[in-house]
């Protein structure tokens, strides 16, 4: 497969997954702001920290409030990771490989493209309740994943796309869990309180994990939720399962069935093994933030190794 096609498939999927995750985060955060007691202030800064865009936000805005955060993360053309730019970049990558994808997939990406452009022109972030917009983004991205699975042959291109999707999903799951441990609680006195429970429930809902977690574990506990989102071997958004799927696709691309034959397979295998033999109690004792930060560093290193091995350096279509 041409490295240009592999690169575009990989990044098209990463951008769509990123857009869906941002829509999830904002939808849940908006709902959370409505559920909090009157004496508890809304907390929108953690949402920006979760996405890794806090430094850029500080350069552009002096204060943090609901309207500014929604604009910045959903519509701001100056934020390279906004939903608006993610959909534009996904469409550009799809356009560059138009003969390699299906008509149905191209039409759905175009639908999302015009939908976010319309949202920007209508200034959705100024509406009293923008949740309908975020819900449509989520549904649009989920429909796109269904179209990919139903219409794209399981060739190398499909596998590169799945790797991009899985690495992006693992990264965002680690970030949303990390921020809960450090920023969401306004004071240690709230630990174990109804506010704490509301926030843990919101975290699960932000990754569509609430129903599956309650079915498996029942009671909401920090250690149980962390274990479910990091180490569960069956939930599709757990970090471990995302990495297992990425490894399968890496090996399908290389044709390797035993061990590793390149740096990307080695790094993915080491990180997966680290998670497979991890114990959530040990992780909590040694430091949840440090553990998740280490995972994010290794995910970035793995992404760079994939780029170095498979993608040519002369392709540069809106990568972040």
In words, what does this structure look like?
This protein is an all-alpha fold. It is 72% helix and 0% strand. It has helices spanning 3-35, 45-51, 54-60, 66-75, 83-96, 103-121, 131-151, 156-184, 194-206, 210-217, 222-231, 239-254, 263-276, 280-286, 288-310. α1 (3-35) runs antiparallel to α5, α1 (3-35) packs parallel to α8 and α8 (156-184) runs antiparallel to α12 (239-254). The two termini are 23 Å apart.
Essential attributes:
320 residues, mainly alpha, single chain, 15 helices
Could you say how many structural domains there are in total? Answer: 1
Total count of helical runs of at least 4 residues = 15
Strand proportion:
under 5%
Could you give the order of the helices and strands?
Answer: HHHHHHHHHHHHHHH
Share of residues in helices: over 70%
Spans of at least 5 consecutive residues whose pLDDT stays below 50 are none
Number of strands: 0
The coarse overall form would be globular
N→C terminal distance: 23 Å
Radius of gyration: 19 Å
Main sheet record: none
Give the integer mean of the pLDDT values. Answer: 90
Please identify the structural class as seen in this structure.
mainly alpha
């Amino acid at each position: 497969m041409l490295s240009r096609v592999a690169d575009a498939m990989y990044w098209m999927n990463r951008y769509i997954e990123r857009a869906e995750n941002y829509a999830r985060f904002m939808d849940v955060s908006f709902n959370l702001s409505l559920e909090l007691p009157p004496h508890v202030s809304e907390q929108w800064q953690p949402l920006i920290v979760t996405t890794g865009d806090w430094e850029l936000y500080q350069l552009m805005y002096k204060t943090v409030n609901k309207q500014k955060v929604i604009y910045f993360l959903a519509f701001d053309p100056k934020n390279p990771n906004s939903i608006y730019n993610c959909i534009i970049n996904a469409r550009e990558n799809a356009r560059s490989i138009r003969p390699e994808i299906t008509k149905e997939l191209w039409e759905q990406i175009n639908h999302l493209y015009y939908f976010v452009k319309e949202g920007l022109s209508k200034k959705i972030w100024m509406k009293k309740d923008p949740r309908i917009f975020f819900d449509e983004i989520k549904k649009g991205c989920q429909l796109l994943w269904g179209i990919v699975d139903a219409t794209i042959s399981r060739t190398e291109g499909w596998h590169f796309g799945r790797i991009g999707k899985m690495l992006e999903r693992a990264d965002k799951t680690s970030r949303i869990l990390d921020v809960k441990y450090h920023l969401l609680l306004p004071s240690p006195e709230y630990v174990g309180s109804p506010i704490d429970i509301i926030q843990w429930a919101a975290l699960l809902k932000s990754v569509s994990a609430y129903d599956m977690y309650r079915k498996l574990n029942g009671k909401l506990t920090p250690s149980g939720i962390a274990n479910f989102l990091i180490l569960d071997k069956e939930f599709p958004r757990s970090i471990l399962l995302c990495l297992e799927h990425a490894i399968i696709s890496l090996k399908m691309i290389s044709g390797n069935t035993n061990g590793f034959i390149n740096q990307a397979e080695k790094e993915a295998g080491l990180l997966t093994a680290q998670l497979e033999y991890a114990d959530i109690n040990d992780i909590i004792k040694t430091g949840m933030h440090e553990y998740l930060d280490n995972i994010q560093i290794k995910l970035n290193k793995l992404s760079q190794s994939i780029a170095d091995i498979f993608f040519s350096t002369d392709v540069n279509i809106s990568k972040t």
